[in-house]
Amino acid sequence: MSAFAGLLAQTPASGYAWAYLDEESKREVRRALLKAVCIPGYQVPFASREMPVARGWGSGGLQVTLSIIEPADTLKVIDQGSDESMNARALRDLIVRTTGVATTTDAREASIIQTRHRIPEDPLHEGQIIVFQVPIADPLRIVDARSSVTRRLHAERDYAPLWLYLYEDVATKGAPSFTHSYPVQVEGGYVMAPTPIPRHDIPRLCEAPFLALYGAGREATVYAVPPYTKVTPLEFDDRPFTVERFPEPCALCGASWTYLQEEADVDPPRYVCSDVAYCRRRRSG
Amino acid sequence: MGYTSVADRTEAVEAAAALAAPAHAVPADGVSALIARCPLLIDQIAAECGVVEPALCARALLQAQGDVVRAVSLVRAWAATLPRIGRVRLATAELRAERRITPAFARPDGGQYLGASLDYAQRLLDLSSSERPAQQNENAHRNGALELPRTFPSAIAPLSDEGLIDATPRATPLDVTRTKHISGRGALLQLLARGETGTMTALAYTAIRGYGQRQDPTLMELRSGMLPVRARRPDGEEFVVGEITATTAEVTLYRLHDQGGADARFTLGVGATVGRLERRAIAAAMLDAGCARAASDPDAKRRPCDDEEFITVAIDGQEASGFVEHLKLPHYVTFTSDLDRVREARAERAQA
Q1: What is the ipTM of this complex?
Q2: Which chain B residues are closer than 8 Å to A219 by Cβ?
Q3: Which residue out of A58, A81, A217, A273 is catalytically annotated?
């Protein structure tokens, strides 16, 4: 601790604990996370704290990261795939100011990656932890807004309402209406909201070597997908799950396998990688 | 002395008001200091009043001891006595943006400008004793000063051109304070412009939280800045009488999953408010979009957040708080009647 006391004294965050949260709070989050890892996909309630960011702006992911982070960790924080987005910078700044940990933009070098809406394009490896900021933790919210109802459905593994929803989509619109936040089943058990990651990222969650932790601050739950766990999107045998498609490869690095975003301030508009650090590294060789 | 005797002793009303008055006199510079130090609070009162006059709003807030609802009541009641001598025209397309963000688009035509915002500032309570010198702020203004383009293209225009946005029904402006029958989108937008910020936020939140039809809202564009106010001379010539601060928001709802077999597209909702009240503008746009979505499917079950009539009733802070607080008035006549029924029913059951 003392090594960091000096560092903290120089920062405006002095007066706050190492990693911001008090030890009791961290312990509570860690206890909930342990349970979450033991029961993959299950939403574990915890007493979510008020954080120095607004609810819905990463307060859950932040509580998870601050509870598990250690001095030797290397941190990467992204929003929409970018390390430079304002929200990613603000969250990273808070974590660094209260811990002094090293940061990186290279997903391969990070031990903890806190993210909103993306999984980095780089293949991740064992030992890495990805922390998702979760807006809507319950995939059954779409069929019933009341947690009193959805908790019972989960307990009974009664996913019929969600299958029915999917069926009606396919029957009446020809395709599932889910876009991002496509519901997944974890090892054939709990159905889980993989966060609003694009469908592109869902296959990359299946049997992945990294640990995925999910923090929902406003909804006061955490959940997890341990390494090498089967994560499958809900789909009918004759209507296979599909991912987003783009008309052309990345205009900057030429990748045709990454998730892209449109840029309209150039003429003609173009598509570029949403994972900015990955795209930049490819271009610099 | 019991409060039932208030009617008999009018001096009790005055004595109660005197007890409620601040112990210390309000300093002479109270109004200007309040405007300078709490601009967003004054904006909120102006918006909820529908009266854009900061000095008056600040005066009302001080008189109301910081009770926003009462301050709004004071200003609205005062404004209600004023004759409407003419109309002014505001065109949100003319807003001179000091801030423009497009969460739905990373790099929109025209660019994004963060402007003045606390969005990404950490919420760490500043417990240092001294207040920050004003000088520091002036420097920030000087360093951050950046000429913004006079106008911006609409961020959703390309999507509209592609036919991906539902045509929004045109709303006819309506002065709800001078109208007998309040209905239609024009009235809704007017009510949303004057609604209570917290109520609007709560209703919009329930929509995004899963109550109501599935919505999946995305904020397309948010602008705040100065909006010219135009009036017309008797000879027909239009001229700018001044500028007000304003914020506009456009929200779309994703819609592949509606009933009725319409093509897949997005439903647009718009929100506008006086002042730099972004939460308020976004909530208004979400509620407008929710109502527009619901209107396309008249048979669907409504929840408060997409029920135009419910929203119309709920969002006026004056009506809501007035009626909730009216329970403080004596009710012993009506309650005696309730009591009589309950006792009678019990007596009947006892005999049976």
Answers
A1: 0.84
A2: none
A3: A273
Q: Has A279 been annotated as catalytic?
A: yes
Record: contact A89-B127, CB cut-off 8 A = no
Alpha carbons within 13 angstroms on the beta-carbon side of residue A164 total 8
Q: At what angle do helices B30-37 and B54-63 cross, to 10 degrees?
A: 110
Q: Note whether B120 contacts A13, CB cutoff 8 Å.
A: no
Six-digit token string for B3: 């409060």
CA distances from B59 to B72, B134, B197 (A): 11, 24, 20
Question: Cα separation of B158 and B148, whole Å?
Answer: 22
pLDDT at B16: 84
For position A2, what pLDDT does the model report?
A: 42
Q: What are the structure tokens assigned to B86, written together?
A: 């003419």
Interhelix angle A59-68/A86-99, rounded to 10 degrees, is 30
Angstrom distance (rounded) from CA B320 to CA B303: 19
Q: Token pair of A190, please?
A: 């709990």
Residues of B within 8 A of A53 (CB-CB) are 122-123
Query: For residues A116 and A169, is the Cβ–Cβ distance under 8 A?
Result: no
Residues with pLDDT less than 50, chain A:
1-12
* Residues of A in Cβ contact (< 8 Å) with B106: 80, 261-263, 274
Question: Between B1 and B350, whose confidence is greater?
Answer: B350
Per residue in A38-50, pLDDT (tens digit) is 999 999 999 999 9
Active-site residue A250, yes or no? yes
Could you give the C-alpha distances from B12 to A27, A42, B108, in angstroms and in order? 56, 61, 63
The answer to whether the peptide bond before residue A240 is cis (omega within 30 degrees of 0) is no
Average pLDDT, chain B: 87
Q: What is the pTM of this model?
A: 0.88
B278 phi/psi in degrees, rounded to 5: -70, -40
Residue A198 one-letter amino acid: P
Compute the distance between CA of residue A177 and CA of residue A170 in angstroms, rounded to an integer. 8
Alpha carbons A114 and A60: distance in angstroms, whole number: 11
Contacts of residue A106, defined as CB under 8 A and 6 or more positions apart, other chains included, come to A76, A122, A277, A281
Residue A80 sits at the chain B interface (C-beta within 8 Å): yes
- Cα of first residue to Cα of last residue in chain A, in angstroms, is 40
* Residue tagged active-site, from A60, A61, A217, A250: A250
Interface of A with B in 239-278 (CB under 8 A): 261-266, 274
Going by pLDDT thresholds of 50, 70 and 90, the confidence category of residue B19 is: confident
- Residues belonging to chain B with any Cβ–Cβ distance to chain A shorter than 8 Å: 105-111, 114, 119-124, 127, 158, 206, 209-211, 214, 216, 254, 256-257, 264
Question: What average pLDDT does the segment B236-262 reach?
Answer: 84
